[in-house]
Amino acid sequence: MLALHEVHTHYGLAHILSGVSMEVRRGEVVALLGRNGAGKTTTLKTVMGLVTPTSGAVRLGDEEITGRPPYRIARAGVGYVPEDRRIFTELTVRENLEVGRQPPREGCPVWTEDRVFELFPALAEMRDRLGGQMSGGEQQMLTIARTLMGNPAVILLDEPSEGLAPVIVEQMARAISELKREGLTVLLSEQNLPFCSAVSDRAYIIEKGVIRYEGPMQELLARPQVLEAYLSV
Amino acid sequence: MEFYLVQALNGLASASSLFLVASGLSIIFGVTRIVNFAHGSFYMLGAYIAYTLVQALPTGAVGYWLAVLGAAVAVGLIGAAVELLLLRRIYRAPELFQLLATFGLVLVVADLVLLIWGPEDLLGPRAPGLRGSVMILGEPFPTYELFMIALGPLVLAGLWVLFHRTRWGTLVRAATEDREMVGALGVNEAWLFTSVFVLGSFLAGLGGAVQLPREAVNHTMDLHIIAEVFVVVVVGGMGSILGAFLAAVLISELNAFGILIFPEITLVLVFLIMAAVLIFRPWGLLGRPEGPPRTPAGEFEPPLRLLGRGFLYFCLAVLASAAVLPHLLPTYYIRIACEVLISALFATSLGFMMTVGGMASFGHAAYFGLGAYGAALAVTYAQVGTGLGLLAALGLGLAGAVLFGYFCVRLSGVYSAMLTLAFAQIVYAVLFQWYGITGGDNGLLGIWPSDWVSSPLAYYYLTLTVVAVSLFLLRRLAFAPFGYSLRAGRDSALRSEAIGIHVRRVRWVGFVIAGFFAAAAGGLFAFLKGSVFPDYSSIPVSVDSLVMVLLGGVQTLSGPIVGAGVYKVLEVFVNRYTEHWQLILGCVLVGLVILFPQGLLGYLVGRFGRSGEEWRGVDGAPAGGRAS
Ligand SMILES: Nc1ncnc2c1ncn2[C@@H]1O[C@H](COP(=O)(O)OP(=O)(O)OP(=O)(O)O)[C@@H](O)[C@H]1O
Ligand SMILES: [Mg+2]
After folding, report:
1. Pairwise CA distance, residues A231 & A229, whole Å
2. Which of A7, B279, B335, B572 is the most buried (most CB within 10 A)?
3. What's the CATH class of domain B325-608?
4. B284 in helix, strand or coil?
5. Quick check: ipTM above 0.90?
6. HSE value, Cβ hemisphere, 13 Å, CA-based, for B435
7. Does A83 touch chain B if contact means CB atoms closer than 8 Å?
8. What is d(CA B266, CA B254) in angstroms, rounded to the nearest whole number?
9. What was the pLDDT predicted at B299?
10. What residue ranges do the domains of chain B occupy?
11. pTM (two decimals)
């Protein structure tokens, strides 16, 4: 469904991704694990076209999307949920959702305002509240809901559990499983291993811009030395 | 009592017209982050096109209002063309280059208007159906002014509905906050930008078109309104439409009543109000604080380099040739050489503040003009010689820079730059309006140098000495501890504060230094020309200085000198062959910004500085020769 092939990305002169290749198959939830600064966000931004790779290719289905502007990548079916949430603080919840709304896409689950409110009931109760007046957890729900309104085929989630209370993290995990049931493909960047292991099918580990490990989630959990080497701090 | 009411109503009518233009500027800035200098030109075009359409369409109400609407639509389309052909290419360029490009447009439009419609004032017909007047408390009041009073709030309401009740409006408001995110959600930002630009231009065009029955259409409308609009937008808060409305009412009422109390200095009143608002609300009445400017990923400002011995020899060689030069030139060219030197100083003073201080000014001519008038007033009223005259120039320039700088450094980025323009307009207005002292637009004549420097050659050497010493001092200042503090403040105000630098004060001093040396240039210029005019502090002169700096490139201290040289020589030669210097300059500016967004010297250094030997001696330190 989504594939990166030998992707190199630079910020100015700094070489951040050095030949990242990975694949996310249709309907899978794949975790991208790594320490702070490993390059997770950069990988997702590269897929989204927010940074342009210096070489390599990103493919969505059969289409090559490398180098396209972000709006076209979004319209091709990639949904992006940024790490810092980037809620429009001066817009209400409903207006935030409106910005994300795109026409239905063939073969992808169709989302409406009512349906995202079903997924995140808490949002339904504050539909006219300004984005700037919401808690971190509420904003995290809103940013996912906003992306869903674009009816994506693949969704890129950047550390959705970061800085959230355990109860909310659990809700997030439930929501992600729900999305998977709907048939959505998910690429999840995370540092929170328990959260990831609850929802993901497979995992990649990235370190200093290089993929160090790839395999089913269950296998990774059975290899403490790998976890020790690349994830523990 | 009745009289005051009528005066208040007059104020409201003017407010509407100001609001139409200001709201357009504000909307465009909100989304594109571009301060569109050409907005006043769009307003002027609206008036001219309406004038022509009214002539062309059948007389009567339908024809008239069609003409007004048609003019607004036409300006909207011109806006679309400008956005698609020009701005789209430069959204990622540094802010100042975007400005420079829109400056270029101002010049092009100004000359085209002269070409098409000629220099005479054009009087449009009055609006059919709104020709008469109504009695208000026994005083007659023009019906058209009532229409204007209603128009402002109507447009405000219309914009509110558009922004809060349509998907387009929601997207625009979202893009105002975070353009990139809007794009990542699948919205084609490029078209959003174009449509916003069209709306803004349409409003400016409408503002110009409805002006037809109120004032004669003329070719100075563009710069006249842009200064007022900047004041309105800064006071109201960039990007806030309601703020623009409130500020337009405030400023217009102030003008309406100020004119009764101090007819000569209404602008000073406006200035006082603006100052008061900005002290208490630095982002305007309804504006939101700007976040720290986001440098695009991976871009950084290369450090200024202390230049090696090669550069020193180069400077000495230039100085020596400058000293010999006048012996090889006819007298006429000596005067031009003086002008070039003065421009180099003027441009470098601005360059100092921009490069080292990171502060831009749209109104640097204020200090040039103050310097020139300082000298001229001292000569006229105290009959002093050239030496004391130059000191008076420095004194007046210093005073102006201290006063205006105090306010400008309290703001940042575009706010501060727009404020500098407003101050320059105030200086201009005072010089223009204070007829008894400054001679108004007749200026002050007979400001000739004293006997010891009365020959062109002697004056040339005086100029060369003052300019060389000033340039040396500016350079030394940039690499003195003060210069480092200033640069630290430029790169990160927060971190500088944390290590104990009083950033605002350091900036203020930097601003004053820049004004001081600009005044020196102004003083020299007064004696060179033998006369002074309010034009010395007008917007075009400010633009000149900015163009010279940006031509040379803001990354280097010596860039402005190169820029000034190229610019002045070009001006002299182009002026000889054609009257359309503005048109050509405008096109050149637009072209340069598109081709070399780093400036000329910046481009050359970037291109050859690393590998080519030839530029080492000019502005590239030998390897490893960074400032220590
Ligand atoms: N805009 C930028 N300019 C320069 N370097 C950057 C930029 N953004 C990130 N980096 C660098 O790129 C590297 C990878 O950053 P990235 O944000 O992808 O890491 P991450 O794995 O998402 O980390 P975290 O868990 O902290 O979010 C880091 O070393 C970071 O310092
Ligand atoms: Mg990250």
Report:
1. 6
2. A7
3. mainly alpha
4. coil
5. yes
6. 3
7. no
8. 8
9. 43
10. 2-258, 325-608
11. 0.84
Cβ neighbours around A14 below 10 Å, total: 10
Distance CA A26, CA A2 (A): 8
Asked if residues A18 and A7 have their Cβ atoms less than 8 Å apart, the reply is no
Number of domains in chain A: 1
Nearest 5°: phi and psi at B344?
-60, -40
The tens digit of pLDDT for each residue in A116-147 reads 999 999 999 999 999 999 999 999 999 999 99
Helix (H, G, I), strand (E, B) or coil at B39: helix
Look-up of token digits 């590239």: B620
Can you tell me the distance from the alpha carbon of B554 to that of B468, in angstroms, rounded to the nearest whole number? 20
What is the separation, in whole angstroms, between the first and last Cα of chain A? 33
> How close is the nearest chain A Cα to the Cα of B387, in Å?
52
Dihedral Cα A157, A159, A163, A164, nearest 10 deg: 40
**Pocket lined around ligand 1, Cβ cut-off 6 Å:** A 11, 14, 16, 34, 36-42, 83, 191; B 297-298
* DSSP H helical ranges for B500-538: 503-529
SS3 B133: strand
- Dig out the tokens for B106 from the structure: 């101002």
Give the helix, strand, coil percentages of chain B, each rounded to 5: 75, 0, 25
Secondary structure of chain A in HEC code, one letter for each residue = CEEEEEEEEEECCEEEEEEEEEEECCCCEEEEECCCCCCHHHHHHHHHCCCCCCEEEEEECCEECCCCCHHHHHHCCEEEECCCCCCCCCCEHHHHHHHHCCCCCCCCCCCCHHHHHHHCHHHHCCCCCEHHHCCHHHHHHHHHHHHHCCCCCEEEEECCCCCCCHHHHHHHHHHHHHHHHHCCEEEEEECCHHHHHHHCCEEEEEECCEEEEEEEHHHHHCCHHHHHHHCCC
**B186 inside 8 A of chain A by CB:** yes
Helix or strand (DSSP H, E) at B61: helix B61-82
Pocket mutation for ligand 1, best pick of A15, A17, A40 (most atoms within 8 Å of C-beta)? A40
Give the DSSP H/E element, type plus range, for residue B572: helix B559-577
Whole-number Å distance between alpha carbons of B113 and B115? 5
| Separation of CA A185 and ligand 2 centre (Å) | 20
| B438-489: pLDDT as tens digits | 988 899 999 999 989 888 889 999 999 999 999 999 999 988 888 888 888 8
Give the nearest ligand 1 atom to A38 CA.
21
Helix (H) or strand (E) holding B152: helix B143-165
Task: Give the residue among B247, B272, B199, B241 at the shortest CA–CA distance from B14.
Answer: B247
Tell me, letter by letter, the H, E, C secondary structure of B394-416: HHHHHHHHHHHHHHHCCCCHHHH
Report the mean per-residue pLDDT for chain B.
85
- Tokens (6 digits) for B598: 């780093």
* CATH assignment at residue A116: 3.40.50.300
Of B170, B186, B300, the CB nearest to A75: B186
Return d(Cα B552, Cα B546) in angstroms, integer.
10
Q: Which domain holds residue A35?
A: 2-230
